[in-house]
Design goal:
201 residues; alpha/beta; 10 strands; Rossmann fold; 6-stranded parallel β-sheet; 4-stranded mixed β-sheet
Length: 201
């Protein structure tokens, strides 16, 4: 059962393990978190806003709530994906390639669990740098896009694109303005990011 379903159902007392104290020893091997739990933890730690949905109706409702919360109705949206434009048609949005748009709507290549980042390439952002994208971003992804690390995400990009490997491969990892930056996020652009995650496994 995935983390998302367990979060929705809550924890049964029978699932609790009696010897949790025994496992707190520093010599006890670290318990490896499932990939979905690891991604959720790291993504939230980075400051991302996570919306888990079990079907397309929930995705539409969550998207509507995002628009309502930010007053983005009838605003310009930067979106290069025509399929995505069709899926989110009917919200009085002006889809196009304007850099001064209210938000950027996109799919992604992978969701990277070990650092909670979103892997993108020229398929989603063309040749734009992260700094050129709007401050607000809404990413649509599915649970089958979860990968353990960036290397695994790059392998998937390479296997999908035998004739043409996309360029401009990058990750968005910094979603919080007031967060103290470390050297790994040097040169990255802070974004306000919403993730609409559809269960497809």
């Amino acid at each position: 059962m995935s983390l998302f379903k367990r979060l929705l159902k809550g924890k049964n007392k029978s699932e609790e393990k009696p010897n949790e104290a025994d496992r707190s020893s520093k010599y006890y091997p670290e318990e490896k978190l499932p990939i979905d739990e690891k991604f959720t933890y790291n993504f939230n730690k980075n400051g991302g806003k996570f919306l888990y949905c079990e079907n397309w109706e929930e995705i539409k409702e969550a998207f509507d709530n995002i628009l309502l919360e930010n007053d983005w109705y009838e605003k310009d949206v930067l979106c290069v994906d025509e399929q995505l434009q069709k899926k989110f048609d009917g919200y009085n949005l002006n889809f196009g390639l304007k850099e001064k748009a209210a938000f950027f709507l996109s799919k992604c290549e992978s969701l990277v669990a070990n650092n909670g980042s979103i892997l993108l390439c020229s398929n989603q952002i063309k040749e734009k740098k992260l700094q050129e994208l709007p401050f607000n971003i809404v990413i649509f992804a599915t649970t089958s896009q979860l990968v353990e690390n960036i290397s695994e995400g790059l392998r998937i990009i390479k296997s999908r694109s035998k004739n043409y490997i996309p360029s401009n491969i990058t990750t968005i990892q910094d979603f919080e303005c007031d967060k103290e930056k470390d050297f790994m996020s040097y040169g990255s652009s802070t974004k306000n990011l919403y993730l609409l995650l559809l269960e497809d496994l």
